[in-house]
């Protein structure tokens, strides 16, 4: 029984599958060109190389009005230290998938593996940052107390807790506000508190469910850069769910595009942009525009009911 928590990359096409098997497909092939027929799965890694694995994940909700198949068949791997973004049409099961990965929701079929162990509940090695920071922070606790709470629940000694909280607040630029209450802070600062709480827990995998959807554009840009910096500095594996196409391309080394519900992987896309990214320079690159166009086009295809080759049409 799993302990509970208190709280290379290439497009997956038949062409790409051949390349992984040793064929001479060109590395970094253009995502803006005409897509080849796709396999109904994301990128997978050889045994022992994946930190996080999703295998044949299916989720059906049983309601009084009948069964609702939210997720049909999702398979993909994340390597240790990878930052991948997940995008898709509204209602494509992104949050459902994230809850299943986090052990907050059971699967109907398939499994999630973390470091080779099946996820059956919230794992100790994983933390989640939710979209609704106002509901994830306790308004009667000060900033430092909010950040400290999961560490306290885990039974960590007080001195170590205090050190981790101070380091986490410093990492997100909030060293000056440990005694403030969440309701005294702006939305962007509250979300930084939520990120600090996750960082203090020192997870191997950080799941982020549209964490910047409720903040203004300038704050969003700052928080995007914060996530990339923390990812690099701390070496976490990050799976970031977003509706924002530009955000997915700017943040990720890889974008997993979901089909419409019942959900499968429509495309697993390499983001072949420079490793060092800048809000002005990176977004001005011709390649950024090409990638944005391609992802937008794929999502529009999904909305029109397109299904990847090898997947059944929804009933």
Topology overview:
Layout: H1 14-20, E1 50-63, E2 66-79, E3 83-87, H2 94-101, E4 109-114, E5 117-118, E6 126-129, H3 133-136, H4 143-153, H5 158-171, H6 187-200, E7 205-209, H7 217-234, E8 237-241, H8 245-251, E9 254-258, E10 263-270, H9 281-284, H10 286-303
Parallel strand pairs: 2-10, 3-8, 3-9, 6-7, 7-8
Antiparallel strand pairs: 1-2, 1-4, 4-5, 9-10
Helix pairs in contact: 4-5, 4-6, 5-6, 8-10
Note down, in words, how this protein is organized.
- By secondary structure, the chain is α/β, with parallel strands linked by helices.
- It has a domain at 1-21 and 37-125 and 238-309: P-loop containing nucleotide triphosphate hydrolases (Rossmann fold).
- The protein is 33% helix and 22% strand.
- The chain has helices spanning 14-20, 94-101, 133-136, 143-153, 158-171, 187-200, 217-234, 245-251, 281-284, 286-303, and strands at residues 50-63, 66-79, 83-87, 109-114, 117-118, 126-129, 205-209, 237-241, 254-258, 263-270.
- A ten-stranded mixed β-sheet has the order 5-4-1-2-10-9-3-8-7-6, with helices on both faces.
- Strand 4 and strand 5 form a beta hairpin.
- The longest helix is centred in the C-terminal third of the chain and has 18 residues, at 217-234.
- The radius of gyration is 20 Å and the shape is globular.
- The model is unreliable at 1-39 (pLDDT under 50).
């Amino acid at each position: 029984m799993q302990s509970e928590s208190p709280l290379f990359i290439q497009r997956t096409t038949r062409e790409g599958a051949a390349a992984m098997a040793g064929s001479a497909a060109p590395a970094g092939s253009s995502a803006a060109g005409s897509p080849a027929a796709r396999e109904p799965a994301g990128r997978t890694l050889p045994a022992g190389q994946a930190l996080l694995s999703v295998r044949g994940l299916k989720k059906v909700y049983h309601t009084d009005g009948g069964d609702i198949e939210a997720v049909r068949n999702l398979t993909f791997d994340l390597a240790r230290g990878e930052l991948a973004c997940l995008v898709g049409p509204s209602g494509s099961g992104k949050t459902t998938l994230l809850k299943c990965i986090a052990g907050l929701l059971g699967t109907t079929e398939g499994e999630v593996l973390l470091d080779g162990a099946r996820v059956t509940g919230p794992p100790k090695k994983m933390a989640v940052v939710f979209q609704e920071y106002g509901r994830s922070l306790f308004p009667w606790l000060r900033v430092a107390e909010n950040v400290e709470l999961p560490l306290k629940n885990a039974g960590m000694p007080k001195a170590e807790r205090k050190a981790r909280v101070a380091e986490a607040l410093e990492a997100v630029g909030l060293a000056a506000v440990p005694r403030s209450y969440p309701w005294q802070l702006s939305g962007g600062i509250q979300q930084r508190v939520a990120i600090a709480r996750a960082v203090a827990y020192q997870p191997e995998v950080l799941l982020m469910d549209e964490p910047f959807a409720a903040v203004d554009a300038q704050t969003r840009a700052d928080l995007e850069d914060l996530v990339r910096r923390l990812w690099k500095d701390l070496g976490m594996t990050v799976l970031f769910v977003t509706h924002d196409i530009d955000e997915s391309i700017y943040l990720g080394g890889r974008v997993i595009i979901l089909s419409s519900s019942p959900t499968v992987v429509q495309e697993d896309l390499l983001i072949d942009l420079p490793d060092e990214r800048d809000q002005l320079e990176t977004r001005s690159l011709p390649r950024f525009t090409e990638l944005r166009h391609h992802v937008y086009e794929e999502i529009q295809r999904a909305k029109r009911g397109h299904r990847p080759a090898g997947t059944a049409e929804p009933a």
